[in-house]
């Protein structure tokens, strides 16, 4: 069985459409055919104890931004400004839990967002912890957003009485700060492991044009307006847990051997344990007369 599907149905990847290749990546997992194919494993993961999804809006004033346009024009009649967000990242610069500042503030970027450790002793969880429940806290934080946007300016103008379309681009790199306050955030009971807060934000932008002037001698537009950011952010409070799961084994990833080394010459990425099942790799289980190992085991079950 192929691990990766090379293309969507109906699309010929040998001749990519508009130069773009297409694919659907898949990692193979064993499908259970009998109850004994399903095993139990104890895994160490992070549980989302509480989370909030919130939306923020921030305005950034743009004053006297010069944009070079082409072609040469005598006058400019209309101006349209489109905003494209090239990069956007946020970082927590201050964090308060029930009006007490978290110091030192240690934030680590990660795939689940920016992780900040909150010391357990900052919150008195004893009373609610006896009931097996969390304790309500208030979270306040100051967040700095760094961004890069490309503004595309288009419109119409005239040259010797002829109406022409023009265009120009400008890039803005800057930052701004916004505040976040969350009440009744549920802090978990005291445990061995620290509590982590994860923050992640994504944004869109648009430009609200207020005025412009045109310098025909230099073919330059000077624009003024407001750069608006529409942000969607999530704050998660996570705690480590050990849970039992049902599994059919570890994920199987497509292998690619080197020029000289192959097969058992390579070390294993993961440690082997009693639940590893290597028979699926090459079916080397003394059942070559059968179509596959499943047929052999099915006959034993009968």
Report on this model:
With 302 residues, the chain is mainly beta. It folds into two domains: 1-30, no CATH class; 46-243, no CATH class. The chain has helices spanning 126-130, 279-282, 293-301; strands spanning 39-70, 75-76, 80-97, 100-101, 107-110, 113-118, 135-159, 162-187, 195-215, 220-247. Strands 1, 2, 3, 4, 5, 6, 7, 8, 9 and 10 form a ten-stranded antiparallel beta sheet that branches. The longest helix has 9 residues, at 293-301. The radius of gyration is 29 Å and the shape is flat.
Q: Strands, helices and their partners?
A:
Elements: E1 39-70, E2 75-76, E3 80-97, E4 100-101, E5 107-110, E6 113-118, H1 126-130, E7 135-159, E8 162-187, E9 195-215, E10 220-247, H2 279-282, H3 293-301
Antiparallel strand pairs: 1-8, 1-10, 2-7, 3-4, 3-7, 5-6, 6-9, 7-8, 9-10
């Amino acid at each position: 069985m192929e691990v990766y599907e090379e293309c969507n149905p109906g699309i010929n990847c040998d001749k990519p459409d508009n130069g773009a290749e297409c694919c659907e990546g898949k990692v193979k997992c064993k499908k259970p055919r009998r109850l004994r194919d399903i095993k139990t494993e104890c895994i160490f993961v992070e549980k989302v104890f509480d989370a909030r999804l919130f939306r923020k809006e921030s305005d950034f004033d743009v004053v006297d931004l010069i944009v070079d346009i082409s072609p040469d024009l005598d006058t400019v009649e209309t101006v349209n400004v489109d905003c494209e967000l090239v990069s956007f990242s946020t970082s927590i610069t201050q964090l308060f839990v029930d009006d007490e500042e978290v110091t030192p503030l240690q934030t680590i970027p990660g795939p689940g967002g920016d992780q900040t450790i909150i010391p357990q002793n900052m919150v008195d969880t004893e009373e609610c912890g006896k009931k097996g429940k969390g304790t309500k806290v208030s979270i306040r934080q100051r967040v700095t957003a760094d961004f890069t946007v490309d503004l595309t300016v288009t419109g119409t103008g005239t040259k010797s009485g002829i109406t022409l379309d023009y265009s120009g681009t400008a890039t803005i790199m800057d930052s701004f700060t916004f505040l976040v306050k969350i009440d009744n955030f549920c802090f978990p009971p005291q445990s061995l492991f620290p509590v982590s807060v994860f923050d992640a934000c994504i944004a869109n932008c648009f430009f609200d044009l207020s005025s412009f002037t045109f310098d025909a001698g230099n073919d330059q537009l000077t624009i003024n307006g407001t750069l608006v950011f529409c942000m969607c952010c999530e704050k998660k409070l996570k705690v480590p847990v050990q849970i039992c799961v049902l599994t059919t084994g570890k994920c199987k990833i497509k292998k690619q051997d080197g020029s000289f080394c192959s097969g058992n010459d390579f070390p294993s990425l993961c440690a082997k344990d009693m639940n590893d099942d290597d028979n699926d790799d090459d079916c080397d289980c003394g059942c070559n007369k059968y179509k596959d190992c499943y047929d052999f085991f099915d006959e034993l079950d009968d």
